[in-house]
Amino acid sequence: MSAVENKAAIRRLIDEVWNQRAFEVLDQLFAADAVIFESGLPFPTRGPACVKEGIGAICAAFPDIRQRIEDLFAEGDRVVVRWSSSGTHQGKYFGIAPTNRQITANGMAIYRFAEGKIVEEWMNTDMLGLLRQLGVVPG
Predict the structure, then answer these.
(1) Pseudo-torsion of CA 106, 25, 88, 108, nearest 10°?
(2) Using CA atoms, how far apart are residues 13 and 118, in angstroms rounded to an integer?
(3) Which domains occur in the chain, in start order?
(4) CA-CA distance, 46 to 4, in Å (whole number)?
(5) N or C: which end of the chain has fewer CB within 10 A?
(6) pLDDT value of residue 75
(7) What is the pLDDT of residues 114-135, one digit of tens each?
(8) How do 78-88 and 66-75 pair as beta strands?
(9) Strand order in 30-38's β-sheet?
(10) Mind listing the pLDDT tens digit for each residue in 16-34?
(11) What is the pLDDT of residue 42?
């Protein structure tokens, strides 16, 4: 796939999966054995089912969450996205009881593509900023 097509796949990830909750699209975007590296997790996860579980848990905790692409770059088989999201903490999030606080989170991710699908994801989220907004960590 071209860099343009790879960027279009990341736009689908944000628009269709995150913002429209079309989780089935993840099977089209991620390879079955894709490796997912998430900041703060001691080990990688694998495959679209793990991505569905992770995004599903976030959407359950922040049911009105909306993602936005701030920057999107592609070269060769890699795409980098700087994103922001906003929502209301209305469900349990990593053991944190709902606070009903509005949050704005941001982060960056690098995706590597092979044969038209995401085969690796490296995600870094500003968790400290998010936890401060939730009142879990002093500001």
Answers:
(1) 0
(2) 11
(3) 3-133 (3.10.450.50)
(4) 25
(5) C
(6) 96
(7) 999 999 999 999 999 999 999 9
(8) antiparallel
(9) 45-46, 30-38, 117-125, 102-114, 78-88, 66-75
(10) 999 999 999 999 999 999 9
(11) 81
